[in-house]
Amino acid sequence: MKEGAAAEAQQPAARPAPAGGTPVEKEPATGPPKPAPRSKGRKKANTTQGIAHVFATFNNTIITITDRSGNAICWSTAGSSGYHGSRKSTPYAAQVAAMNAAKKALEAGLKEVEVFVKGPGQGRESAIRSLSQAGLSITAIKDVTPIPHNGCRPPKRRRV
Question: What is the pLDDT of residues 111-126, one digit of tens each?
């Protein structure tokens, strides 16, 4: 008990704030230095060519635009574009998501894209159409949907 009171007496007392309301300067903190803050601005892409990956599922459409080596430049989804629930799976939601991704890609300096389409969803064609309408030049369209050679058992058919 006495040791704690002695330790408190040795530390300098905190000075109260002056009447003007300006804060009192604190002593510099001891410890490891803080790392420099990271910049939040996007780097401009070195290339003007990229790849647009359109992943259309039954519930959502995901558009990711990458450079040639696969590093993501920007992305957008139907869900992040403001659609939720069953509206995410509509072709219009895929169109809006593709427009958002294309705008970000154009800001990053992209001009030409190859389009890789994957999945059975409704938003495949509308996403491709809106990528070209947004100002990106489409050089090739490839379907990369994985087709099983009798792999996993599919879900049972719906009886409505």
Answer: 999 999 999 999 899 9
d(CA 58, CA 65): 21
Encode pLDDT of 19-44 as tens digits. 666 666 666 667 677 777 776 655 55
Q: Are strands 137-143 and 72-77 parallel, antiparallel or unpaired?
A: unpaired
- The β-bridge partners of 61 are 56
- Reported pTM: 0.69
For residues 117 and 124, the answer to whether their CB atoms sit within 8 Å is yes
Question: Shortest CA distance to 132 belongs to which of 109, 98, 107, 93?
Answer: 98
